[in-house]
């Protein structure tokens, strides 16, 4: 395993057998409204992806369900052939319907089809990392993950997937998945105001597994809290910067994939995440989600 030097905040993390920057990028917001259809600003979307890689980001998160297929196709247009350093993580387990819903789709046939579609739309022979997404649009739901993981392992053995992760999962499903195959990450909703996974993050850190929070800035509902505004005002920065810096400081196994459709926001977020928060700042921020 090689360690890539980076000037990005947070440094790097060994995601299984690949080294990635802890400051990554989530491509979901590049699709059209409510993650359906093409972006309003196609050239702007391409510019954000290229800028992310030029800034040194080596972890880009996507899914065939975004658009559907829109963010994968944008990533391919902007970045293919991909630099060896860049890891693209995708996820399977849901389709999109005509109303923009996210119906679950995780029979073995569904998963094989989604892996094939991801390979085609990203233009690769092997997917770097596939997250098995469980739950639904409201969050994790109980239910067995074993059959789905076994299907992904079968595709991994065929050389179509390099590494596996899980997403939108309960703690029980993480344990169940790990009985089927090694996983390198868990991608769940987590941010300053949603701290339900605190114990899981610590358990994964002890085992060297990454935790990748989605909606790190609140997703469709940007984070808002008096404590967040107060700390941002005290440090003369914006709340988004504080939210990202806090995540990087939360635990070294936390990898960021904040989304944005704007180069200016991408650069602002990279700069902001480098802030060092004092113990007093962290105590104040911890009051939001506890
Ligand atoms: N596994 C799953 O089930 C799942 C679910 C959801 C998302 N995800 C992944 O997680 C990633 C992150 O989630 P997300 O993008 O939905 O939410 P997010 O990162 O919490 O927030 C993105 C939103 O914040 C805004 N934003 C970003 N930087 C900003 C700044 N400096 N100032 C003001 N606004 C700013 C963006 O608007 P602008 O475009 O205007 O910057 C966008 O609307 C996604 O891209 C996706 O890859 C995974």
Features:
290 residues, TIM Barrel, seven-stranded parallel β-sheet, two-stranded antiparallel ribbon, 9 strands, 39% helix, binds NADP nicotinamide-adenine-dinucleotide phosphate
Order of helices and strands: EEEHEHEHEHEHEHEHHHH
CATH architecture assignment: Alpha-Beta Barrel
Inertia-based shape: globular
- Poorly predicted parts: none
Number of strands: 9
The value of Rg in angstroms is 18 Å
The first-level CATH class is given as Alpha Beta
Question: Can you count the helices?
Answer: 10
Count of the domains: 1
User: What percentage of the residues does DSSP assign to strands (E)?
Assistant: 5-15%
**What does the largest sheet look like?**
7 strands, parallel
Q: Which compounds are bound in this model?
A: NADP nicotinamide-adenine-dinucleotide phosphate
**What is the CATH third-level topology name?**
TIM Barrel
Strand order of the largest sheet: 3-4-5-6-7-8-9
Question: On the 0-100 scale, what is the average pLDDT?
Answer: 96
* N- and C-termini, Cα separation: 38 Å
The amount of helix comes to 25-40%
Q: Look at the structure and name the CATH superfamily.
A: NADP-dependent oxidoreductase domain
Task: Walk me through the structure.
With 290 residues, this protein is an alpha/beta fold. The chain has one domain (12-218, 247-261): NADP-dependent oxidoreductase domain (TIM Barrel, Alpha-Beta Barrel). Helices cover 39% and strands 13% of the residues. It contains ten helices and nine strands. The protein has helices at 42-54, 70-79, 108-122, 146-157, 171-180, 198-206, 226-234, 239-250, 263-273, 279-289, and strands at residues 12-15, 18-21, 25-26, 59-61, 87-92, 127-133, 161-167, 185-187, 210-211. Strands 3-4-5-6-7-8-9 form a seven-stranded parallel β-sheet, covered by helices on one side. A two-stranded antiparallel sheet has the order 1-2. α6 links the parallel β8 (185-187) and β9. Bound molecules: NADP nicotinamide-adenine-dinucleotide phosphate. NADP nicotinamide-adenine-dinucleotide phosphate (NAP) is lined by residues 26-29, 61, 91, 133, 167-168, 187, 214-219, 222, 240, 257-262, 265, 268-269.
């Amino acid at each position: 395993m090689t360690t890539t030097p980076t000037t990005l905040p947070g440094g790097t993390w060994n995601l299984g057998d690949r080294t990635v920057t802890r400051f990554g990028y989530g491509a979901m917001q590049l699709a059209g409204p409510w993650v359906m259809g093409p972006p309003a600003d196609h050239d702007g979307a391409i510019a954000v992806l290229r800028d992310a890689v030029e800034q040194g980001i080596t972890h880009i998160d996507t899914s065939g369900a975004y658009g559907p297929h829109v963010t994968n196709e944008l990533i391919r247009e902007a970045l293919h052939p991909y630099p060896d350093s860049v890891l693209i993580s995708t996820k399977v387990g849901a389709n999109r319907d005509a109303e923009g819903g996210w119906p679950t789709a995780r029979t073995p046939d569904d998963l094989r089809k989604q892996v094939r579609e991801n390979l085609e739309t990203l233009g690769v022979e092997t997917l770097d990392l596939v997250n098995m997404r469980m739950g639904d649009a409201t969050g994790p739901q109980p239910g067995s993950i074993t059959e789905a993981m076994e299907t992904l392992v079968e595709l991994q053995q065929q050389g179509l997937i390099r590494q596996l992760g899980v997403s939108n999962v309960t703690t029980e499903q993480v344990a169940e998945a790990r009985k089927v195959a090694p996983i390198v990450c868990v991608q769940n909703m987590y941010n300053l105001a949603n701290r339900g996974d605190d114990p899981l993050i610590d358990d994964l850190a002890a085992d060297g597994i990454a935790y990748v929070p989605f909606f790190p800035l609140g997703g469709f509902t940007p984070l808002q809290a008096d404590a967040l505004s107060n700390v941002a005002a005290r440090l003369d920065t914006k709340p988004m910067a504080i939210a990202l810096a806090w995540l990087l400081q939360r635990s070294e196994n936390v990898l960021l994939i904040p989304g944005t459709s704007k180069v200016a926001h991408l650069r602002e977020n990279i700069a902001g995440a480098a802030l060092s928060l004092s113990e007093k700042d962290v105590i104040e921020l911890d009051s939001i989600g506890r």
